[in-house]
What does this fold into?
Amino acid sequence: VLRWDHAVVHARTRIEGGELGNVDLVKLAGSVASLEEGPFGEGFDLFDAALLFNGSALVEVAAAPNLRHGSPQHAMSVLCRFEEPPAVEITLLVAGASAPLALPRLMAVGGRSALSDTSAPTPPSMGPFYEGVWRSIRERAPVPVLAAAARNAVYLAECAQNSTRTGRATAAERLLKVVE
It folds into this structure.
């Protein structure tokens, strides 16, 4: 769902258009109900979005509790390092348990400029997804999200979960090639 969020679409357009220069870091943040399920649940869309900002090979994922936002059960940070920039950092904050989200939902830092979106998240819109599914069935159009992209987002979340459990960065070796 987040892949169709206005902030994500706008940021990707500006980054791909070269407006920001060489982008070194993209930060994504979101609220979740709990971290008990690890990085899954409502935060899952952030892993899908992270892979949209870098098409090069994922090298490693490092995840740890983020103590700046309370106890280890209140926030988690995940750093995704790719073969080429930008790196992508994801912050998951437990709503109500930690301080209100004081981070931009999305931030990109480039050599020429930066962008930041602090707008409130809008309720998820499944419209583009279901419209795409309808078109793929009725008109033989491409599916809105390829199975490889969904599998890669799950794999990225699993790497983050493993890194949190072991306390070490997890080498990412099994991403599938996604051709859209």
Summary: The chain has a mean pLDDT of 80. Strands lie at 23-32, 58-65, 75-82, 87-94, 106-110, 114-117, 170-171. The first strand starts at residue 23 and ends at 32.
